[in-house]
Amino acid sequence: MSWVSLVWAGGAAAAEPPTKLVFQMDLGVKNVQFAGLLVAEREGFYRAAGLEVEIRRLGQGPSDYANIAATVAATEGMVGSIESGLFLAGRAAGLPIVALGAMFQETPLGLMSFRAKGIRAPRDLAGKKVAVHGDGQEALDAVLQRAGLNRTQLTVTEADYDNAPLLAGKYDAKQGYLVDELIKLQVEGHDIVALPFGANGYAAYSQVYFVSETTLRKHRAALVRFIAASNRGWRAALADGPGTARFVVEKHEPRLALDYQTRSLAAIGPLLTAESPQLGVTTPETWLRNAGAFLSSQPQAKLGEMARWVDFSVAAEAAKLAP
Predict the structure, then answer these.
(1) Which of 91, 94, 199, 262 has its CA 20 to 30 A from that of 309?
(2) C-alpha angle with apex 179: 230 to 60, nearest 5 degrees?
(3) Which among 288, 290, 24, 294 is positioned nearest to 134, based on CA atoms?
(4) How far apart, in whole angstroms, are the C-alpha atoms of residue 310 and residue 287?
(5) Is there a common fold for 3-106+204-321 and 109-200?
(6) d(CA 189, CA 197)
């Protein structure tokens, strides 16, 4: 029996000091987007895997989100969560970071608009005013390109992080996280619909697990166990969606509406296995498409060989390990 299997079984190896890891969220609230990890923490899955994991909220400063890749790059023993486009931007900037896998195998990014605006397909964006964030520019370009459109046929502006301008009609459509912002607006009674980026030409991952090259080199076995335990947590979370949502609200974020979190988790479920029934894994094909879209939007950027910035073996081993 291997040391890893002894740890899962709670055998003699469990007496060894646990490996300490910090999971750095890319969000300031512990909502159901991280339900699998929160359930793994609650159920002791990390402890059983010989790990001591701190799940850390993102700070509320204006630069915390922008600097998450740099923070993870500089911190040994830290696993980060990030959008794949932002990961690629960090790697292109020279940060020594490596992607290990992803919680969401399809991006939940998209455009939100009032139903009355009539935006049902990318072609409906012609003549419209569309607001996107900095991390959504390449996604919008990919969607437009697939639809045979270009930016001259619509007005593109910088999106506010507050949804009030969308509700006030400042623009026709706004980038949003469709498992979070969209559902929150719908629960509040707004007749808002979505145009998903993932279903309309933009291949990308969300909540990508990534670490520094140093962390991967020194703690590879622990990282395999971390993703395996997180996968186990996600399966347990989805097995009782309503109960998981209630736990997240009552334990971590009592200010969030239960209906909002319940519906959000239901929307997240299909994204976890959009490409494979194995949780956490990613594919070279999607990464190459994502990198192509990134480089098209930033032609001066350089990424180098994909083998330098994605390690597919960690998530693949984790998918086989989790009970």
Answers:
(1) 199
(2) 75
(3) 294
(4) 9
(5) yes
(6) 24
- What residues contact 255, with CB distance under 8 A and at least 6 apart? none
CATH tag, 109-200: 3.40.190.10
Helices (H), 151-192: 164-167, 181-187
Distances (CA, A) of 216 to 210, 249, 279, 309, 312: 9, 33, 20, 11, 12
Q: How far is CA 172 from CA 2, 131, 187, 290, in A?
A: 57, 8, 20, 26
How far is Cα 39 from Cα 247, in angstroms, rounded to an integer? 9
**Residues of the chain falling short of pLDDT 70:** 1-15, 322-323
In the chain, where the domains are located: 3-106+204-321, 109-200
Give the tens place of pLDDT for each residue, 55-109. 999 998 878 888 999 999 999 999 999 999 999 999 999 999 999 999 999 999 9
With beta carbons less than 8 A apart as the criterion, state whether 33 and 207 touch.
Answer: yes
- Architecture, CATH, for domain 3-106+204-321: 3-Layer(aba) Sandwich (3.40)
